[in-house]
Amino acid sequence: MKAVAYTHCHPVTHEEALEDMVLRDPPEPRGHDLLIEVRAVSVNPVDAKQRAGADPAGEPRVLGFDAAGVIVARGPDAHIFGTGEEVYYAGVINRPGSNAQLQLVDERIVGRKPRNLTFGEAASLPLTAITAWEALFDRLRLPRGGADDGAVLIVGGAGGVGSMAIQLARRLTGLTVVTTASRPETREWCEKLGAHHVLDHAGDLPAQAKQLGLRFRWIFSTTHTVRHWRALCEMVAPQGAICAIDDFMEIEIGRLKAKSASFHWESMFARPVYRASDLLEQHRLLDEVATLVEAGTIQHTLTRHLGRIQAAHLLEGHALVESGRMIGKAVAEGWN
């Protein structure tokens, strides 16, 4: 099968950072696995981080943590879907990824592809939808539906996860949805997705929040959490909560004590990597997202079509992610 893989860690500008290869097809699916013919993939920060920092020691490793495709076979314990069905999913970090023509994926982390989306549009959604959903509703426990006098702050609203978080918070809760962006085009994108207010994260965030008369019961930080930490601790309401997804090892957690505020991590790979008892929740939430998309309640976040699935095009996506200026998601679709 055709695939895009890497054998050593290189910067994105290196000619062998990603390579087009022909690899052995996956084995027959077992257990709950589905064998999926990949039609489209998207690029996430985790792809770039793995390519740059997780050396496979000379063995080809296939990345890719977002895909949409068609089921061609299923294991003996797989009963949610039938062969020929169109699906979308995010895979898992400890198995071969989606940048290949065929991929094995546990059906319990797979959702039905929204009927009104192309494969490319659908591939822009799974990882960010799962991450945003779990952060907002499983970690922060935002109240769903109805009016509420609270406010939620989403730091980094124009990125892939922020783009989904804005939509989910605005459409599924009665909260005031506030996000951050620092450029005119990212501010416009966040407002288009439904943010009530957009703060400039290059400026004084607490001062801007104070001007709006807001203190946040919930804060979801998608990027630069350490840089903004003191500001977030100042803005969080007493007994409020902060959730983060970016990588860091140390933080001044004691700043939350006086407010009895809490801190939460979100990692969408936690359920599948550790085979959590509620693994099926990722399938259910992807199906619910598909229903919301079909109803026009939320939209896909594809903003850059990279062309066919091949090394040069995926490296273009990696470079966009690493630039820190990506809006929405970059997608590659189809094979040569």
Automatic annotation (TrEMBL):
Residues covered by the Enoyl reductase (ER) domain: 16-332
Pfam families: ADH_N, ADH_zinc_N
InterPro entries: ADH-like_C, ADH-like_N, ADH_Zn_typ-1, ER, GroES-like_sf, NAD(P)-bd_dom_sf, Zinc-ADH_QOR/CCCR
Swiss-Prot/TrEMBL keywords: Metal-binding, NADP, Oxidoreductase, Zinc
The family this protein is said to belong to: Belongs to the zinc-containing alcohol dehydrogenase family. Quinone oxidoreductase subfamily.
Record's protein name: Zinc-type alcohol dehydrogenase-like protein
Organism name: Roseococcus pinisoli
